[in-house]
């Protein structure tokens, strides 16, 4: 059996001699491709794309869950209502702080962890599982866990601060307008570090050893090797990972929703938690319009970010 | 690397890794601890880092005061069915994406990736409307359908990475031996890819298990709720009962944690491959 399959495999390999046009593109092949893709398409089109398209045009309608009989077209009124809302600029500013602060800290800690994990050591697999587990927990539940730990009366964080003498009296983390945003960002950092560590570690492991050896032979120290050899080599991965995370954190209301619900007094309200609030009030028109603004911001950001970072490379 | 690290490198590194391990594990420890404290010791000051006595009272009151057994079962059935169907369907689409070169392939990948970037709340209203027309509101089956659709795109991208690692010659050999394409996929490739398939299944399972906003919108009846929907009900009450809440949190986290730990190596491989190809 094995001899004959080997032989056949050999024949199979000679068949695919010219690599770019490996297979004869027959009608039969196209039918196969179509047949294999169809089940996935049916689900994604019916349950994802169709509601998204319908939802998209709700941005230009008055659309309330409590009055589905009349959903008139109102042009850009939802957008002007949103922008005229005094909360709008605050929500945008909160979103910016939420994304930038979470991202910078996650990146720095994640990068250091990845550097620390680069070399094999005993129980490295166990260690990775230990720091990776937050990923198996929903953002919503993480919000609840941190809400408990940041509790002003019986929370463990206040207890630690008071035992160590950092603070003389309990701090009302989630009730204080200035501190609530800090607290939700702490929770988000805790959650997101593992992602950066894993992605950066994978990139680091793809750097050929010869590069490091060559740098060592040239007399480069660790710091120089890191900044002049390693980071430039994995630059593309870093740029893309950061971009994916920006999009993702911007769109990620779960932690805030579980922890503060956007409060106190909208101090932790970001664009997507605000969208949730609109949907809870049944006003899908406003929610959808806000969704468009979020997408617009992300598209513009992606364009600018990629242009800046790819142009800089060219001599 | 050839050279051995000097102490000024290895000691800070070990210390740094150790500190992060503590930070990473602490919330888990804390919620476990809270869940085993007797009701009267949860809101206690100063806080105790090791309980005076262990008690299961939070767990018993959780099951007595709420339908938590039903929530667990609902979550299990909904997530497992959605993950099973989504993984099977994605196996087919990922196979095609990995093995064939066709003109619209980029567009297909793009169509999958875009679904990952749009805020899902836009879709909630229309989905509710559609489900009302189809009679699927407040049905667990309806939730399964939405979760399948939610899981397919990323599962396809992830599985494609695993397919790319299996040489073409394997199924070509089987096909020359007279197997159909589907037969070759099913009997030759699937067995080789088992770790990747399990990892994808677990990833999908965990995502459905944790999903909140769709479930809150589509399910109303109490004994049809999944765990996140139920927890959402717990926190909407102004006073959260932290004892039963922590017990519920532990029971929600543990199953997915065990699954993730079991498959973390393959999930990491799937995620990093998927992302670099994307």
UniProtKB/TrEMBL annotation, chain A:
For this record, the Gene Ontology CC terms, alphabetical, are: plasma membrane
| PROSITE patterns listed in its UniProt record | ABC_TM1 (PS50928)
Question: Where, by residue number, does the polypeptide cross the bilayer?
Answer: 31-52, 96-117, 129-150, 179-204, 225-250, 284-308
**Which topology term describes how it sits in the membrane?**
Multi-pass membrane protein
SUPFAM superfamilies recorded for this chain? MetI-like
Please classify the protein's predominant subcellular localization into one broad category.
membrane
**Would the keyword Transport turn up in this protein's UniProt record?**
yes
The UniProt entry's sequence similarity note says: Belongs to the binding-protein-dependent transport system permease family.
Q: State the protein's name.
A: Sugar ABC transporter permease
* Biological classification of the source: Bacteria, Bacillati, Actinomycetota, Actinomycetes, Propionibacteriales
UniProtKB/TrEMBL annotation, chain B:
Q: Name one GO cellular component term.
A: plasma membrane
Q: Which residues cross the membrane?
A: 12-32, 71-97, 109-129, 141-163, 184-206, 247-268
Q: Which GO terms describe its biological process?
A: transmembrane transport
Q: Does the keyword Transcription regulation apply?
A: no
- What UniProt keywords are attached to this protein's entry? Cell membrane, Membrane, Sugar transport, Transmembrane, Transmembrane helix, Transport
Q: Does the keyword Transmembrane apply?
A: yes
Q: How does it sit in the membrane?
A: Multi-pass membrane protein
Q: Where is the ABC transmembrane type-1 domain?
A: 72-263
Main location per UniProt?
membrane
Places the protein is found: Cell membrane
At the top level, the lineage of the source is Bacteria
Q: Which family does it belong to?
A: Belongs to the binding-protein-dependent transport system permease family. MalFG subfamily.
Concerning PANTHER family, the annotation shows: MALTOSE TRANSPORT SYSTEM PERMEASE-RELATED (PTHR32243), MALTOSE_MALTODEXTRIN TRANSPORT SYSTEM PERMEASE PROTEIN MALG (PTHR32243:SF50)
Name of the protein: Carbohydrate ABC transporter permease
Record organism: Tessaracoccus antarcticus
